[in-house]
Amino acid sequence: MLHFTQKIAIPVIIIAFILVSQTGCRSSQVQPSQDQPQQPLLSPPHHVITITPRPAETPSVQTTPTKQELDISTKENRDGEQELDISAEENRDGELVFTIAVDDLITAYNETYTTDQEKSYLPDLTQWEYISYAEAPHSDYETDCYSYPIELSGPYIPSITLYVPSDSDFIQEIALDLDHHGYQEWAYELFEEKCLHILKTLLPDCGEGQLTKLFQQLYTLAERSDICYFGSGLGAQITPPILFWHESVGIYPCYAGGMLYINIIPVTQEYLNALTAKGSELHEIP
C-alpha cells in the first residue's frame, strides 16, 4: 500500500512532465528573424504615366526641303536674345512650312519667356504628347502633332500644339487653344500669356503694345463663331476667312466645338493672293 505522500507526488510528476514537453515543443518552433523585412499587407496603388516618345525614325533637318535648301539661321535682337530668321517655303506639294525647326522654336520661346517670367516654360519635345495624323489642317499628307502640356486630369489647361510634316523637323502650323465652354479668368490669363510669348517669338519687330492689341483683336474675332468657324474636315483646302499677316507669318482665329483657337501658319505672297481670290479678309500687321 502506497504512503499518502507517494499518492500526491505521482500526479505532480506527471503534470510537470507534460508542462516540460509542451515547453520544448514551443521552443522548437522557428521564430521569425528580426533582420527579415516585414511585408506590408497591401501595397499602395501606383499610377503609371506613359508619355509617347518622339518617333526615333524622324528624318533629320537636312532631308526636309524639296524646293530649295531652307535657312534656319538666327539673328540677335536689340536685347541680345537670338531671334529666329523666319521665312516660308513649300515642303511637299501644296504644303508650306516655316523655315525653323521645332527645337529652335522651343529654345527661342523659352528665351522670350525667361525674360518676362525668369524661368523656362516649354520642355524638351520628348515630354510633349505625340499623335500622328493622316492629314492636318493645312496639309494633305501625314503629319506629326505635338501638344503641351499633356492633360491627365483636372481642368483643361490652354495648350500649344505644333504640326510637323512626317518627313521633316520644320513647323507646318502652331495652334494655341482655350476651352471656351465656360469662361474662367485664370484660363484666359494663361491663354493670353502663351499667345503673347509666341507672338513675341515670331514677330520680334513688333512692340509689346502692338502685340497685345493684336491678341485682343484675335480673341474677339475667335469668339464670333459665325465668322471664324471654318467648318469640319482637314487638309490644305481649309481657307481662313480672316487672316492677319506680317512677312512670312500668318495668324487667324477660329472657334470649333466649344474650343477657341489662334492658329499661326507660314504664308507666301502666292498663298495670300489665293486667299484674296477666295474672298478672305486680310490684314497686314505693320
Describe the fold and architecture:
By secondary structure, the protein is α+β, with helices and mostly antiparallel strands. It is built from 6 helices and 12 strands. The chain has helices at 4-28, 102-117, 185-202, 208-223, 225-228, 269-277; strands spanning 74-76, 82-84, 88-90, 96-98, 129-133, 143-148, 160-165, 173-179, 242-246, 249-256, 259-266, 281-284. The strands form 3 sheets. The chain has an 8-stranded mixed β-sheet, sandwiched between helices. It has a two-stranded antiparallel ribbon with strand order 1-2. The chain has a two-stranded antiparallel ribbon with strand order 3-4. The longest helix is centred in the first third of the chain and has 25 residues, at 4-28. Mean pLDDT is 75; it is low at 1-78.
Characteristic key phrases:
single chain; 286 residues; alpha+beta; eight-stranded mixed beta sheet; two-stranded antiparallel ribbon; 6 helices; 31% helix; 21% strand
